[in-house]
Structures are given as C-alpha cells and as structure tokens.
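User: Sequence recovery, please. Input:
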C-alpha cells in the first residue's frame, strides 16, 4: 500500500504562503482569475478608504506621497497592446506599493498612530505583496518587458501627489477596481482560450 496524498493541506499551505506574499512553487497560476480573489482585495481597500474618510487626526502625512494616476480611458485601454497594459499595471503596482510603504513609515513615525489605521495599512502592504505574487504566477511580469521599439514609444506613467491616508486608500481602491481588474480580466481570458 502506498502513501495516500492529501492535496487539501498542501493547498491550504500554498494559500497561506501566498497571502503572505511569498512565492509558492506549485501555486495555481490562475488563482487571480477567480472573481472572489480580486474582490477580496478590493473589499479590503474600500473598507480602509471608508475607515479613513472622516479621519482628521493622524491621517495627514508630514510629506507628500507620489501615487499612480488611476484614471482609465477605456477606449484607449482596449486599443493598447497587452505589453503596454502589463507595463502600466506593473509600474502602477510598484509605485503604489512604494507609496503604501511610505505611508506606513509616516504613520509609524506619527505621535500616536491609531491601531485601526495601522491595521488597514498593514493589510494593504500584505495585499499588494500577494497581488504581485499572483500577477507573477499569471505571467504578467514577462509581458511587462517592453520590446526595444516599444520602449521608445511607451508613455511614462502618469502620477500625482497626495497628502492624506484617505486619498492613499482611494487610489489603492481605484487602482484595483480599474487597471488591475481590466488587465487580469483580459489576461485570464487569453489564458482560457
């Protein structure tokens, strides 16, 4: 009699490690294609945004933070090459991750950071790490490498600065609901053909 394999604990361990943002060998590459996965991160971002809407004390930063512009021209987005979309998502994700980490540091250095605010920022850091891993598993990072002739024609990432935690979480939520959702939806459709 051979040893019987039990895939459920292995899957749970993979999901646990994936939620920590650690690369997992054998993780399902299409996990982000499940609507509930991305919806969970969007819900967390909205909860953080809603928690900071009326926040006055401890929610303003001592310095401005640069974030990606999350506006999407849907007509232009549909005409974009997949590589251009991937570059825009990766650059936006990287800048957003940097902004959240900067916000986390500024919040930690404030006089008395609220535990609730700190929890939302920590969740956002963890969520962005997980999303980065999920996009890597989807192969998005490979698509984001521009071709030599495309590099010269690629428009630089549009950015602006913000000065409050509420605005940071609004950008985070908008990025997930906009460009990230559009890109992953298309990438998942291409992978299903």
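Assistant: Recovered sequence (193 residues):
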């Amino acid at each position: 009699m051979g040893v019987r394999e039990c895939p459920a604990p292995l899957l749970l361990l993979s999901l646990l490690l994936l939620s920590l943002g650690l690369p997992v060998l054998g993780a399902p590459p299409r996990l982000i294609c499940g609507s509930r996965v991305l919806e969970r991160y969007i819900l967390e971002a909205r909860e953080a945004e809603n928690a900071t809407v009326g926040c006055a004390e401890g929610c303003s930063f001592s310095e401005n933070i640069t974030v990606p512009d999350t506006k999407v021209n849907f007509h232009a987005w549909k005409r974009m090459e997949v590589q251009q979309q991937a570059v825009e998502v990766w650059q936006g994700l990287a800048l957003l991750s940097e902004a959240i980490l900067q916000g986390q540091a500024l919040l930690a250095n404030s006089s008395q950071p609220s535990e609730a605010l700190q929890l939302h920022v920590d969740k956002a850091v963890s969520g962005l790490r997980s999303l980065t891993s999920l996009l890597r598993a989807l192969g998005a990072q490979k698509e984001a490498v521009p071709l030599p002739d495309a590099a010269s024609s690629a428009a630089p990432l549009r950015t602006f600065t913000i000065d409050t935690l509420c605005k940071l979480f609004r950008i985070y939520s908008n990025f997930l609901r906009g460009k990230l959702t559009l890109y992953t939806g298309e990438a998942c459709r291409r992978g299903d053909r």
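The first helix runs from residue 7 to 19.
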